[in-house]
């Protein structure tokens, strides 16, 4: 019967090999037993222990695996004592120990495997910003790499011979360089994906013979003309109104007879 309590009768054993295995969520891994040509009949028992509990065992030629909770239906123990874990979950990460006792009562060295399960990286996106700097006749490039899947992947940029480990990349780009390709790779222990972006530095300069200073002068001149025109218009309107009032007053005096009668 499978023992599900923390039961480790073997003491004083040494670790023969330490192995790290990486897996991705939903995938399958095989944890090797590294027992060579030994057969089932050579052992009293072989256990695979995880989190202090026996998860799979071969005892007296009988194979039994843990079908409770976390690993239900996902473990398979092979005749060579290797343990297969299917439909991996993040919580499957941790240390797995293979221990055992031979028929003659001697212990086999404990074999420890560190399993690291990660989310697979599904997509990689690059955001780019290119700014023309007229003072030095070059472009300033700013790139940001992001991904979906694993929330904490590592990022590596590649541009020509340049390599940089960061989620951001900054560099200068000359117009004569033409198209320049930069690639970002997001990776973890289980997967990696790469995305590329092509950039070209295009100068954005004013038309020939036209400068920012000239533009300011034109704007100032136009504004000045508008202001002067407004002042002249107001002045002429006031003058016209005064003349009209004067004429109307003269006409009134010339048409009114003495005594108020014609």
UniProtKB/TrEMBL annotation:
Residues 109-198 form the Ig-like domain. It comes from the Eukaryota. Its main location: membrane. SUPFAM superfamilies: Immunoglobulin. It is found in: Membrane. Gene3D superfamilies: Immunoglobulins (2.60.40.10). InterPro entries: CD2/SLAM_rcpt, Ig-like_dom, Ig-like_dom_sf, Ig-like_fold. The chain crosses the membrane at residues 214-236. PROSITE patterns: IG_LIKE (PS50835). Residues 1-16 form the signal peptide. This is SLAM family member 5-like. It comes from Paramormyrops kingsleyae.
């Amino acid at each position: 019967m499978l023992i599900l309590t923390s039961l480790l009768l073997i003491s004083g054993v040494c670790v023969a090999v330490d192995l790290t295995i990486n897996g991705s969520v939903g995938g399958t891994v095989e944890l090797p037993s590294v027992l060579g040509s030994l057969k089932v009949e050579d052992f009293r028992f072989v256990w695979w222990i995880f989190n202090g509990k026996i998860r799979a065992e071969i005892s007296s030629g009988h194979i039994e695996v843990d079908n409770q909770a976390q690993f239900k239906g996902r473990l398979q123990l092979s005749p060579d004592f290797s343990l297969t874990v299917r439909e991996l979950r993040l919580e499957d990460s941790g240390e797995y120990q293979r221990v055992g006792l031979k028929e003659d009562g001697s212990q086999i060295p404990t074999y420890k495997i560190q399993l690291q399960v990660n989310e697979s990286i599904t997509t990689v996106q690059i955001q780019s910003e290119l700014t023309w700097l007229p003072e030095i006749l070059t472009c300033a490039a700013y790139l940001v790499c992001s991904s979906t899947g694993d929330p904490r992947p590592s990022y590596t940029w590649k541009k020509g011979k340049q390599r940089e480990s960061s989620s951001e990349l900054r560099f200068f780009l000359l117009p004569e360089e033409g198209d320049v390709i930069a690639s970002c790779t997001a990776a973890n222990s289980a997967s990696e994906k790469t995305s590329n972006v092509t950039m070209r530095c295009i100068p954005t300069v004013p038309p020939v013979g036209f400068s920012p200073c000239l533009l300011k002068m034109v704007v100032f001149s136009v504004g000045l003309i508008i202001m002067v025109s407004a002042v002249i218009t107001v002045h002429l309107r006031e003058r016209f109104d005064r003349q009209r009032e004067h004429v109307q007053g003269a006409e009134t005096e010339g048409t009114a007879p003495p005594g108020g009668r014609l």
